């Protein structure tokens, strides 16, 4: 092979190397991004994890820890709540996460003590393991700073989804009544 042919071959190899130099890096970056995305979204929802989150709501209500209470609630979560009075009147609230957080902050600032328990918990996990619905009854006793005792029982249905590696509540419907 002549020097001219060798030179053309080397230039061709260098040109190919320069052209493809960015491709493996881009592909590798994309691959790593996809791998990270997949890893974040592979967390499977289990009944135990749902129980833990629901118990966390009760525990953070007892300690009036708003930050912990709000942590497993998705930014786009929708919350519906209706509470029947002794007279049978009912008010329906439809809230987004921010509105709900304001109400919880006001509630926590007026609570002296809180007791809560769940019963009849049923958790249904989606076939893909990335969603779940929990239905349960929540019994609460709240003593306000002024000493007023509020007792409620509600039937709740809560939906959860695996989002960015976390199990988050995306919807909750609560239908409750005061217990006198």
List keywords for this structure.
180 residues, alpha+beta, 6-stranded mixed beta sheet, 4 helices, 40% helix, 42% strand, disordered N terminus
Mean pLDDT: 83
Q: How much β-strand is present in the residues?
A: 35-45%
Helicity, in percent?
A: 40-55%
Report, as a whole number of angstroms, the end-to-end distance.
100 Å
With strands numbered from the N-terminus, the spatial order across the biggest sheet is 2-1-6-5-4-3
Low-pLDDT stretches: 1-42
What's the order of the H and E elements? HHHEEHEEEE
| C-alpha geometry | globular
Structural class assignment: alpha+beta
Helical stretch tally: 4
- What multimeric state do the chains show? single chain
Layout of SSEs?
Blueprint: H1 3-40, H2 47-62, H3 66-70, E1 73-84, E2 90-96, H4 97-109, E3 111-125, E4 131-144, E5 149-163, E6 166-178
Parallel strand pairs: 1-6
Antiparallel strand pairs: 1-2, 3-4, 4-5, 5-6
Structural description of this entry:
It is a single chain. The chain has 180 residues and is an alpha+beta fold. It has 4 helices and 6 strands; from the N terminus they run αααββαββββ. Strands 2-1-6-5-4-3 form a 6-stranded mixed beta sheet, covered by helices on one side. A hairpin with a 4-residue loop joins β4 (131-144) and β5 (149-163). It is globular. Mean pLDDT is 83; it is low at 1-42.
Summarize the structure.
This protein is α+β, with helices and mostly antiparallel strands and 180 residues long. The chain has helices spanning 3-40, 47-62, 66-70, 97-109; strands spanning 73-84, 90-96, 111-125, 131-144, 149-163, 166-178.
């Amino acid at each position: 092979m002549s020097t001219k042919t060798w030179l053309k071959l080397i230039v061709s190899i260098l040109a190919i190397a320069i052209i493809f130099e960015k491709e493996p890096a881009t592909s590798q970056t994309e691959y790593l991004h996809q791998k990270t995305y997949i890893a974040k979204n592979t967390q499977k929802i289990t009944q135990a994890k749902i129980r833990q989150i629901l118990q966390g709501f009760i525990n953070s209500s007892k300690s009036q820890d708003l930050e912990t209470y709000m942590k497993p609630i998705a930014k786009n979560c929708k919350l519906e709540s209706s509470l029947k009075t002794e007279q049978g009147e009912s008010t329906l609230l439809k809230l987004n996460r921010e509105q709900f957080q304001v109400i919880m902050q006001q509630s926590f600032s007026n609570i002296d003590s809180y007791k809560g328990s769940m019963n009849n918990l049923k958790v249904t996990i989606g076939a893909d393991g990335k969603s779940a619905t929990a239905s349960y009854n929540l019994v609460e006793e709240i003593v306000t700073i002024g000493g007023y005792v509020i007792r409620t029982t509600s039937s709740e249905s809560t939906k959860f989804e695996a989002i960015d590696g976390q199990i988050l509540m995306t919807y909750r419907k609560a239908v409750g009544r005061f217990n006198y």
